[in-house]
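User: For a reading group we're discussing how well predicted structures match intuition. Take Cytochrome P450. Before you show the prediction, I'll give you the sequence so everyone sees exactly what went in.
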Amino acid sequence: MEIVSENLLLPFCFILSFFFIFTSVRFRQSSSRSAMLPPGPPRLPIIGNIHQVGKLPHRSFADLSRTYGPIMHLKFGRLNTVIVTSPEAAREVLKTHDQTLSSRTSPNSIRSINHQNISVAWIHPSTARWRLLRKLSATHMFSPQRIEATKALRMKKVQELMSFMDESSEREEAVDISRASFITTLNIISNIIFSVDLCSYGSEISNGFHDSVIGGMEAAGSPDLANFFPLLGFLDLQGNSERMKFCTERLFKVFRGFIHIKTAEKSLRNDPKDASNRDFLDALLDLTVGDEAELDNNDIEHLLLDMFIAGTDTSSNTVEWAMAELLTNPKTMVKAQSEIQRIIGQNGFVQEPDISELPYIQAVVKETLRLHPAVPLLLPRKAETDVEVFGYLVPEDAQVLVNVWAIGRDPNVWENPTRFEPDRFLGEDIDVKGRDYELTPFGAGRRICPGLPLAVKMVSLMLVSLLYSFDWKLPNTVDMDETFGITLHKANPLHVVPVKKNRH
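Assistant: Thanks. Here is the predicted 3D structure of Cytochrome P450, as structure tokens, for the group to look at:
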């Protein structure tokens, strides 16, 4: 055993010495520039500041920013990283320098499936491919006309959620709020894309889909040495690439099945499909035919991956966090349910247009997104050239992170920042649409989440329906611990017993 240890130790020391010398030379070469970099904590040779980031990086960065300010520089191995934690700095990144900072740094796990070269979330917005994919998404998924056309679908799926809750109420069974709302959201999106449900509340299939989506998110967001030392990428030391491949291949297999069915149907049909019956996949497949085809099946698979991952997990997370906050703040829960009862009365079910008449519920959603943004650091941006932000240098190829979680809890911006107080938004013209930089859970600028309008409608409709139809009984206390992937989950899922309200 000692011989093995010595054989391993000698090459390791050689590599360590090489990196130390290389790092020292690089530091001397860049010392004239480093004085212009944002402030940041001292760093160790080779690893930089990696040791200062724990399992919840958004919290680690927030803690460091209290010492080093709203724009700070950290070094993670070979990767320069600039983190902003104030609305003013966020505005500089997301608006003033949006064009220069609109590229992406992609995790090794994303690169393992070549997603960074195909995905609308990762490819550069100056490319023709990005503009095509963004236009397709906007036109066939998220345009006001398309969202209005799918209103009845959302209502139907939320009514199915209420039926499931009704059955659980009769059995006095606790419901996993995250899983139930995930299935609802998943079936809304799968009907828009494929015209079918992908799973049901009693089916184990939904667990596989749920696990694949969350697994992919965690693989993309988990710490990975290959992100900081690219030469280590092939080793996959944390197993993130293997996990990403496994999870996405399960999803791709589902997508390929629908692509095959639709393609076969199309070849057998002579006349074009009625426009009213066309779904998102129909529109995508139209672009795969002919000599000047703009997409192939691989492009479609990766675009669908974006739609499902971005649209399902984030929305169900937000519903779960909202319910958890309301259950731990009973006075707020009473106020929210009273408003719903006053507006909807004895109608028996919630209509989507009712939500515009519920300012307190809208405030509850905003407050949930303030305290629990689905993507707490947004997706990482990359500086295409050296750029000056707030008088500091953001060097070319640096990763830029906007800590919207920290901004949402900044005592210089928010009164009682850690308390769940929806009232703070009443009478205030603050929204989540990317113009108010103290509240940008969906991002801003050209990289703003295109699914924002649909996400807000789904979350609001599910939340209002749950609060209108049921009271809620906790079998256990609610903890608010988090677990980090790209998205922010509750560490322990919220299980709660629905109690059906009597309406006479």
